[in-house]
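Standup notes, protein team

Yesterday: finished cleaning the Ambrosia artemisiifolia set.
Today: Peptidase S49 domain-containing protein structure.
Blockers: none.

Input for Peptidase S49 domain-containing protein:
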Amino acid sequence: MSMASSNENHGDFKSRLDINKDDEDEYPSGEFEYKTPTAWKSFMVNLRMLLAYPWLKINDQLKSRFSSGLSLPQLCENLIKAAYDPHISGVYLHIETLKCGWGITEEIRRHILDFRKSGKFVIGYAPKWQEKEYYLGCACDELYAPPSAYFSLYGLTTQAIFFGGVLEKVGVQPQVQRIGKYKSYGDMLTRKNISEENREVLTTVLDNIYGNWVDKVCQAKGKRKEEIESFINEGVYQIEKLKEDGWITDIKYDDEVTSMLKTRLGIAEKKKLPLIDYKKYSRIKKWSVGLSGGKDRIAVIRASGKIRRVGGSSSSGIIAEQFIKKISKVRDSKRYKAVIIRIDSGGGDALASDLMWREIKLLAESKPVVASMVDMAASGGYYMAMAAHTIVAENLTLTGSIGVVAAKYNKEKLYEKIGFNKEIISKGRYAELFSADRSFRPEEEKLFAECAQNFYKIFRDKAASSRSMSVDKMEEIAQGRVWSGKDAVSRGLVDAIGGFSRAVAIAKNKANIPHNKKVANYAGRSRGEDIGSNG
């Protein structure tokens, strides 16, 4: 993404989220308005920017690419800054293959649409288009692709993999306790095909994603649902057909789009298009464009990846001992009026999840806490979220999965095949409970099952209590089932649909901070929200 620079000023800019008007008072949308700056404010912004831009050598930046670690918070902040920056005329968005989920994609798309309301342009360009890339691209004013672009808008798929047959052949027998009929994680170890329950969940989630994609593309391109579905089922690949039917604006190479932008901005052909790339623009501070926060502070703690109890300094994911230290630090501080926990995790260690739940629960006794879900907050990820006062998710955030899987591997037959032997001397009836040298004895299997069932009850009952439901009601929607954010709201697992802006608005409301009063955000990260794009 590059920002085209000029000295133009533009009109009103509003950020809107999908909201339910009935609960707007309790869960405000986060909508904010761009007000035309006064003459004095415009003067101050231009003065600050004069000091900022020369250090960035803006005119040298003809073109650059994102790194593989593209950060969602940084990208969204750049778009907000650019909307208010009088030196920015628009955004030239290069879209490469996205390696993120639909929750992150939705948040980026929302910020693109919000930026457009500033009156500035967003031009999209991509050499390869699949559903996720096009979903982002159709939010742009115009869309371009080279003559050799790869288009594969043929529909969506999901899959489940199974190692049961492989493990059987090599002599390994997984012994799995799965609590919750929809808890499918253990299936890949024990089964050779998909269960009906897992098929039901995957089909429902896929239907939600597909339906949302069709609806949003219909809105963006002014087409009927039947037209979109007919196009997908035709298997169109000719770039000329895509232009003819209005899926893209025109067929152009990157240099041709650049020349077109120069003409629009009145820049001489021999001069370079004044672009500033994503990384360099990230160094522009919000205060430079008059967006500095107020005195009130909201702590933002980001937690992304697999949940682990302990880890080394280079460990990725959510390390419970590190996360707990951050929570404790924020809890003890009087500087923060509220806390937002950004969660993007499919779970992991059960003990770690419970320990973090406890710390979040203690934090929630002293400050308002809002859980803001990104791509996924399932199993241990949802366990963390349910300790918050309010849970916010995107329409397509995967969440829930209130269930338990416990397993051990019996390698007895494998050892026989390879001639390996191990002699064990033990003391205690269950000392060899987790031994990989043999299968469970009947009493061991009973104990193993009881342990798993006990943790499931703890998880389910805490979820019921946190969501003000009866245990029986929670049991109906638990059972290890994964829900989309949209379905989770209707079942009481999530309070509101939206992204980070809505989480901030709700946190301000809970902390009795006026909605029109600015706040400063402090970000403590377990791991950034990674988009993983190369462009």
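Follow-up from PR in the comments: The domain at 297-403+479-525 is CATH 3.90.226.10 (2-enoyl-CoA Hydratase; Chain A, domain 1).
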